[in-house]
């Protein structure tokens, strides 16, 4: 049985769904916060609840006593912690919640894993730790100058993982995800926004000149890496990205091509918490976990645009703004 905090989030939902389809028993928790439009989370959750091998509890990982009750009810073989406060920019406005969820919440899970004999944990880390480092990013970089509070909270989480591995033998896989996109994705993320704006004929807001680039990773590949992360490795960190980097302008061009519509771009000042480029060296995860990305950006954008058009009736009212303020 697998415990999945954050099961109504983008990666959490997609990973839980894949495991349920394999017939595995999954217990999920989520606090259904309103950082972005809660209707997206409710939609994801409604899909998961169609499976008889899924159990859900609405709570958050900062609530130790609530989690302890769940651990007393169920016997878990492993934990895939995909509960997190995400968003680099918002961490500048409300830094407290990032340390509370991403760090204290993870500490709660490690303590419960120790108490209840859970031997394996998979953690969602981030490529944001590499701010200022040389491309391509490698796991052996020191990452001792995180730029955002979000990145700081994830670095602290990784420190906890090393501590609980060395002291208590809890096996931990830490996955540094690189700009994940795909169906049922976060509506506050750039690609979702670009598709919605272009489809509806609204202005496409770009912070900077659009030449900043990202190692975009399609959700199916991310799920594959996350599931492979259940393998016993000791305590290791892995990049989940494709060693490719594409500009926002190129992404917008692909969306225009797939939707058959023209973007109306509006350029604004580059945000000081952003980085100009990301690109992952994924040789370590390929060697140890046997993972490599299979979906090209061109194929991924095509799939996502098709999904968006097919689900436009539901998506037209989904807000693309961060709302938990």
UniProtKB/TrEMBL annotation:
Record keywords, A-Z: NAD
Top-level taxonomic group: Bacteria
Domain NAD(P)-binding per the UniProt entry, residue ranges: 4-303
One family name in Pfam for this protein: GDP_Man_Dehyd
Entry coiled-coil feature ranges: none
SUPFAM superfamilies the UniProt entry points to: NAD(P)-binding Rossmann-fold domains
InterPro entries: NAD(P)-bd_dom, NAD(P)-bd_dom_sf
Keyword Transferase listed: no
Protein's name in the database: Nucleotide sugar epimerase
Organism: Desulfurella amilsii
Lineage of the species this protein comes from: Bacteria, Pseudomonadati, Campylobacterota, Desulfurellia, Desulfurellales
């Amino acid at each position: 049985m697998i415990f999945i905090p954050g099961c109504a989030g983008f990666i959490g939902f997609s990973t839980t769904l894949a495991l349920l389809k394999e017939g595995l028993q999954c217990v999920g928790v989520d606090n259904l916060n309103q950082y972005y439009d809660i209707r997206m989370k409710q939609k994801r959750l409604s899909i998961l609840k169609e499976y008889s091998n899924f159990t859900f509890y609405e709570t958050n990982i900062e609530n130790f006593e609530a989690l302890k009750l769940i651990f007393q009810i169920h016997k878990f073989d492993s934990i895939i912690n995909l509960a997190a406060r995400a968003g680099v920019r918002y961490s500048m406005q409300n830094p407290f919640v990032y340390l509370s969820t991403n760090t204290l919440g993870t500490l709660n899970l490690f303590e419960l894993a120790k108490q209840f004999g859970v031997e394996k944990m998979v953690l969602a880390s981030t490529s944001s730790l590499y701010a200022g480092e040389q491309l391509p990013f490698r796991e052996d970089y020191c990452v001792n100058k995180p730029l955002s509070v979000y990145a700081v909270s994830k670095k602290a989480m990784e420190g906890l993982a090393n501590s609980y591995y060395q002291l208590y033998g809890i096996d931990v896989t830490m996955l540094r995800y690189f700009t994940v996109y795909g169906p049922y994705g976060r509506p506050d993320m750039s690609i979702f926004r670009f598709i919605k704006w272009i489809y509806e004929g609204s202005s496409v807001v770009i912070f900077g000149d659009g030449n900043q680039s990202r190692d975009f990773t399609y959700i199916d590949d991310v799920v594959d890496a996350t599931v492979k992360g259940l393998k016993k490795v000791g305590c290791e960190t892995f990049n989940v990205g494709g060693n490719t980097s594409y500009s926002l302008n190129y992404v917008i061009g692909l969306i225009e091509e797939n939707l058959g519509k023209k973007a109306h771009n509006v350029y604004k000042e580059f945000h000081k918490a952003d980085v100009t480029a990301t690109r992952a060296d994924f040789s370590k995860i390929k060697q140890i976990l046997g993972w490599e990305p299979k979906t090209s950006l061109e194929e991924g954008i095509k799939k996502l645009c098709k999904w968006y058009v097919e689900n436009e009736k539901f998506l037209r009212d989904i807000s693309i703004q961060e709302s938990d303020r």
